[in-house]
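Researcher: Batch entry, complex prediction.
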Amino acid sequence: MIKLEKRPQPSKAWTYLTPLLAVALTMVVGGALFAGLGKDPVVAIKTIFWEPLFSEFAFYYRPQLLVKGAPLVLIAIGLSLGFRAGIWNIGAEGQYIMGAIIGAGVGLAFYPMEAFYIFPLMVIAGAFGGWIWAMIPAFLKVRFGTNEILVSLMLVYVAEQLLASASLGLLRNPDGHGFPGSRNLRDYASAHNGDLIANTGMHWGVVAALIAVIFAYVLLNRHMLGFHIRLTGEAPRAAKFAGVNPSRLILICLGASGALAGVAGLFEVSGPAGQVSIDFNVGYGFTAIIVAFLGRLHPVGILLAGALMALTYIGGEIAQSKLGLPAAAIQLFQGMLLFFLLTVDVLTNFRIRLAKREVA
Amino acid sequence: MKRRTLLASAAMTAGLALGMATAGFAMDKTKVGFVYVGPVGDGGWTYEHNKGRLAVEEHFGDAVETVFVESVPEGPDAERVMTQMALEGADLIFTTSFGYMDQTINVAKKFPNVKFEHATGYKQADNVSVYSARFYEGRAIQGHIAGNMTESNVIGYIASFPIPEVIRGINSAYIHAKKVNPDVEFKIIWAYTWFDPAKEADAAKALIEQGADVILQHTDSTAPLAAAAEAGNVIGFGQASDMAEYKDGPRVSSIIDDWAPYYIARTQAVIDGSWESVSTWDGIGAGMVGIGDITDKVPASVAAEAMELKAKLASGEYHAFTGPLNKQDGSVWLKEGETASDYGDNGLAGMNFYVEGITAEIPN
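Model: Structure tokens for the complex:
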């Protein structure tokens, strides 16, 4: 009989092995799914994981990995700080939207003036937009003890309504023939977040994501605040004795994740997306939660997880058009990744023992 | 370091150029790509575009290969999907949602040898055509039936996005409902989505609770019809597709988009080398807009009038927007006998106002 035995301490080795095992399991079960749909599983898996990196057209797909991965990493890094301390910001999507609206709004307010300081101002405004949106659940939690999971999630829907309103009213392109959506920031040099080196996909958001990874790493490993964050998550009572102020931690963690989601939104709206439009948000804020956990809430892990997620998106699209796989199958495949990660997590905390049934 | 990145980027630019050059050459097989905003199984908008794609495959057989990607968000993802199709050798790409407009133009710039066709937009280029259908002609017939059928005199309308396309539909339906029933009132809910069964069902339920016994929809799923069936004594119409599975239930007729003839003709033009950038806006007359069977729930006399209206719209004898018509604020839009022009200040293409009598406001 198989028995699960709790490990005295989470296994170090399995902490690193489980993500790989989850990916492997996803490939096997996903492959079976593709086979069930009448596609060659090996070709399908190869299309998703190999083609974006090494095919004939990889020169186009590789930069796209950066474009797709940067906002995921940027948001996930912020989320991971709170998640580590047991503070659950589920509303990054809303903070991402608010960063985009306010950041783009600041840029458009200067239109058509050209000046070097416009883009930096937009970045600050974007961070502010995300920060202030995250401060709502933070303040309510600190002041009234509300649940930040619910409040931050509900604020996503409020942000979506504000996005619709901004695209239809305040920020609507006056030369847009009555169609919704703001001016395209690509046509406004001072506000455009273009490739820093042509055709590399390397825009400011990618740079910011890399900086965020390094900062988070240093913060968590070398800084007192990082220690407090980890301590609160791992041993809340000990944290109290160590003099951690929980309210301060809530404000900092939610604020940081909000600001990072906000700048991610700003970099997206001023770069790849180009304009504020009703359906500007495509779920980065939610996918980032998967990325954060897939990356074990570790900055470097998140970087890798973000890259992997981006790969499945881009490879998934290639598989759709080349092999005729339905979009739902690709989404299922991505969902499996988190599912298996959570499943095999059991190995980190438990040992599997083959034991004889004991007679009572 | 700097030199290396410079070289790398130069190589990449060369690669992109090479990719574009090779993508331009049509092999013996003509490759046609389709970018869809919803899933092919939405039973409405995307379902009909996909039927058009299948018609292309059937018509040309081995001479043509088609590819598609479904549920593509209207943003940078769309641009990547189009680029990917062009790189993989597509000769002609249909981008089938309004929100793909800027992306289509951007990608078309990079691939001058690939032809693009953007549905329902207004930006053309040397290798970008635009095409749409005069759905408002179908809405006129819908309005006529709805105005006759309603007993509560409240007609619910599930609108998607406040763009001219949708506003035209509301106006056309309202004008023709009002003509046969002066007491009719329109309640409009904006769903801000083209396809979201849950949201659409919620909107339908809210409208029914507000007393609507006819539901018109400009969203693509069958969820509103399902909600109408559940409520009982409420009728609705198929949108974009016939939605015939609700024939025994609430569906009394439908507006059917028929893209097949257009897709076949445009593919043929690419094969012949005669493709040119055009702006197409066809209606019932050209067969791009079809009216689904009117069921027995509708009195025979009303159905006969509806068919007569259809014939007149098809022949061009009657225009769905014929004066006298005032704007919502009471100012004159069309004088007695005057018909709306397609373009210009008060044209149909950019319509952003309601006609007189509608009490709702366009969100902004």
